[in-house]
Fold these 2 entries.
Entry 1:
Amino acid sequence: MENTPGQRHLVMGNEAISRGILEAGVQVAAAYPGTPSSEIIEVLSQVAARRHMYTEWSVNEKVALEVAAAASFAGLRAVAVMKQVGMNVAADFLLHVALRGIRGGLVLISCEDPGGLSSTNEGESRPYAKMMEFPLLEPGDFQEAKDMTRWAFDLSERLGSIVMVRSVTRLSHASGNVTFGQLPEDRPTADFNFNGAMLDPDTGPMINLPGPVTIIHRRQQEKMARAAALFETSPFNRYDGPERPELLVITASACQLYCREAIEILGLEQRVGLLKLGTTWPLPIQLLQRHLALCRRILVVEEVLPFLEENLQAFAARAAARIGIKQFFGKNDGALPSTGELNPDLVMAALSRILDIAPMGRDDAYRRRAEAIFAKGAPPRELTFCPGCPHRASFWGIHNALAMDNRRGFVSGDIGCYSLAALPCGFESLKTLHAMGSGLGMASGFGKLSPFGFDQPVIAVCGDSTFYHAVMPALVNAIHNDANVTLVVLDNSGTAMTGFQAHPGLAVNALGETVPTVEIPDLCRAMGAKVRVCDPFDLPVTQNTLLEMLDDPQGVNVLVLRQICALSPEKKGKKRYDMAVDPQICRADDCGCNRFCTRIFRCPGLGYDPQKGTARIDEVICAGCGVCADICPSGAIERKQRS
């Protein structure tokens, strides 16, 4: 991220967004990590010292937005970054800051995940822009990701409003060529003015009060009207195609790349017009009116829900007297699927149906070759925990404790790597799995159902980063309401699922500085919970501790299972044990265990050697945790301590 204006670089979409943030002269950046957004703060933190910038991994997305807003109120440019589910966490404060306004440019970047490639949902955050009344921008390629992000701060200050920039996985995590611009060298001074009149946006206190709320709301809507006027001439909105197209395709974000490719492959450049919008809320009314008047049929291409489509339909209905009656195609009529990612093939299929042309297919020879290749294929491979993952050992202990307790107990889950415990690799332990913090919140509810005949023990699980993010309020609730529940904190010393970003339990922050730690056991004890700390690799102790907690009829127990992630930078490649299988003892199918280690425990470091008829250790991927030696019923797996 050197100051090399005019030079062209191959960068990831998130790196392009980071470059736009730097070119805008942003001083404060805050986020909670979440794929596909995490790289933005990671890039910024690497250059923060050189760029006189502050970056942080905040405890959750709401706090990240509040940290960024504080900088804005003090006259600095600031950005908050999150993935789509984080928007729901930030929504409470977002409503307030959108209404009251900002001072220094304030941009919210939401990186969404159509298709749920790395998420448990493919939620939409675009409706927040309409519901809470602030501008929404959607870059359509890598150059725009940089340029539009930079422009978003100018727009924010011009309007006095927060601005949202929306990316998607295929933009955030793909790469393309980007021409860099100039990095500013000025260093603004932070100063929060608050002695002016109550409603003065520049010098008054930044407060929302019931009395003048309609005045502030009217001011907010005036900002949106100004934004719509600015969007009429935005260079991020552009049209390509004939003067009088048979079909007008309107699209935004990475979908414009799919549309361009589909039109070109089908040879429809002289029949189909493509209107690519970068400013998708508020809509540029005059621009749309000009283009909609040219064509009767409209195809709207977007991911995932018909947000743009329905807004365009509403506008077309209001403008029907001027532009005529239009026929819309898209999500609502089934021309395009309303779930999952789009691609050029799906767009080509929609274009072919609408224009009544033969769909482009593969010739028979190609189809036969493809079928032959796929018939051989790669062996099926299920989702699983990594070799040496402490979560496998944790859920083995939890699974066995619940089985020995024998009261139909279950686990209420949470979001993280350990969500895989709903699958065989985690012994199908999780029976509820929703939002971050919901595991304990729901367990707290289950724990108050005894007056209604409920007698099943409940274990809630969460990760260490999730504990700080959203579990603490649920823990307070469970303790205050005397819910009978056990919380297991799977502490693997980092936000492992998204790249080992720092959290309050570690002694380092996003800038690499040494900071105070906030210990999970101390917090839980201070709240009034009964707390134990164990190593999940010590299976007998973990199991017995859980049994004692399940047998406790009163209050909240917390078990912190502490073992660093096998893939963490501190531990990766460092084995505690050398593992081996004694072929004289292991008989696999014939020893009575029915290949227990590979059929049930399922660590990828364990395999089956059909020639020898024994289990084997994959030395390449085995992490040397030693747990498999404890689970082998015949004692055939041996471990030797490394010096």
Entry 2:
Amino acid sequence: MPTPVPPPAAAPGVPPALEPEACYRVVASRDRRFDGVFWTAVSSTGIYCRPSCPARTPARRNVTFHASAAAAQRAGYRACKRCLPDAVPGSPAWDLHADLAGRAMRLIGDGLVDREGVDGLAAALGYSPRHVVRVLTTELGAGPLALARARRAQTARALLEGSDLAVTDIAFAAGFASLRQFNATMQEVYAAPPRDLRGRSGPAAPAGALSLRVAVRAPYAAGAMLAFLAEHVVEGIEAVAGTVYARSLALPHGPAVLAVDLGRLEGPVDAGVRQVPVTAWLTDLRDTGTLVERVRRLLDADADPVVLDDQLGSDPMLAPLVAATPGLRVPGAVDGAEVALRAVIGQQVSLAGARTVTARLVARHGRGLPAGLAGVVPGVTHLFPTTAALADADPETLPMPRARGRALTGLAGALASGAVRLDRGWARDDVRAALLALPGIGPWTADYVGLRALGHPDVFLPTDVGVRRALVPLGSEVAALPALEAAWRPWRSYALMHLWNTLMPALPGAHPEEDS
């Protein structure tokens, strides 16, 4: 494991065996970059903390290190009430390496184990249940059931802090099977009954809505994220009002609407982690944890901005861009299939044209929101069309050239049948190969899907028109891209975003001071 000084050249990872002396040096220096990478357990107090916990550094003889919060809980430790170690963003190594453990953690975060059990998780990953349990236990110190339990506890605490739901409702919303199980778990993890965890309360949520907070690593370029999302808004499923981005989404138990306020980050600027306020309207409270995980993907919450900015900021061409927008993220997706289908719609047309065509498809093939959700956010009226609906559409009737219409329905069919899956369970190279095997899907489309739907940190699009436009004022040429790209690895996705960000119009009402 890299030592805290100097900064590592790549994101801190989670090695199969944590090196104790290196970890203790991190704890002694309170290095925030390692929050979410490993957890510190203190035998003299019976608690576990994030590495940057402001409490007095424990004696080395009393400390052990764990690769997940679930592993610390499994060893009998409870969460520190001061640094809230279970609430930190996940490890950036999950996206950097995207190995089996990382892919499994994404699916567990999405609630797959709660819905389908360990067998469902194993099937989604393409391995036997025994192998998945063995890998997760070896690399993260806990099996899928323990990891899912830790996720449920974290979701429950977020609801206790940010909603006025009854405790019984929170228990089932977080995925617990019974109130007794819920009480026992919260007592074990937090050394307190649920009623004592009713903590800080933010602005009151609208009637029928939940008020939540999503942790992101700081600095966080919220204004740039908002500008990108606003530039890609599709009428009917998305809307931007001031600094709030809102959209509909389909969750496992029903549709939902969310609103993310990117102009009001919470928490001290120098705390290493900020909180993004989210308001959610759910059909079924059991989807709460899944919604939070998908918002985290959308916001690229787990990226390590310090490592990213250190490396990309050392590049002479990117240095002024990094200095102007520290903490820039790659906008992710709440639905990988939607990103892929919208990418095909946008092939060889302007962004404005793609938005218009997509809005027409939403109006014709999308489902209207049910009565309880329609109208909660002005302009958000529909769900994006299902893959089955677009697979059944006649390409001749779609508002696009016939070849692109056939590509769209072919991709929709592959997604509907499971021949291509974009839930982050497959290895990225396998997804790319499966996409390229489909008619009408070329490298730009496949790599754009990898960038946004799969959270790939090392994607670049050298043929993109926007990239070529962005290079001109920077005094570079397309011919220089191969050499530039080599210096940007393994963070080419973030270099790409810095180039695209130079083309984004400023948003009225955005607050750049919130970016840092």
